[in-house]
């Protein structure tokens, strides 16, 4: 077993050369659409969403203004959780739920069902004996919540495609990027800003490889990716 603590090497292993180091521990995600998640998010897509994130960050600061003025104690875990929820909802679905004031929003409610800690026997089987859990077709996450996000994704995709030629307000969330990719056969996965990361020949080879491997996500994969944003990004961000 090897431990890596050099930032540049970690970036190579986890980002640039991830395809060379694929042997990571896999968690059984069950039999729902969540199991169809694939690596499809990149810093290139993130940069396209910075406008939405900036607006949510501004509102986050405004929500804390009263604490700054009055000198009151703020529950930062609560506010950072709301901030993470809003950012993920906006980046994945293009919806700003303003969860700090809308705790009963359907996205918030169903996301928390998926994120909630489950200490049931079936969940422990997923952790300790994933092969047994897979044999009995058990599910580690709330199936109703996953179905909600499946329906939400299908609804958003259908609305976006039907309004593609009439909607003048171009969105920059993940679903829209995937729709644009399908329509224009363009690649949005470039993680390189300048020649500082690599020389021209390396950049050309990398671009050719990415274009050859680019693909359009299915509806099920879009659903899985959106839910994965919550699982991977919510608690890690708010707790940090």
TrEMBL record:
Keywords: Heme, Iron, Metal-binding, Monooxygenase, Oxidoreductase. GO terms for molecular function: heme binding; iron ion binding; oxidoreductase activity, acting on paired donors, with incorporation or reduction of molecular oxygen, reduced flavin or flavoprotein as one donor, and incorporation of one atom of oxygen; steroid hydroxylase activity. The keyword Heme applies. Pfam families: p450. It comes from the Eukaryota. Belongs to the cytochrome P450 family. This is Cytochrome P450.
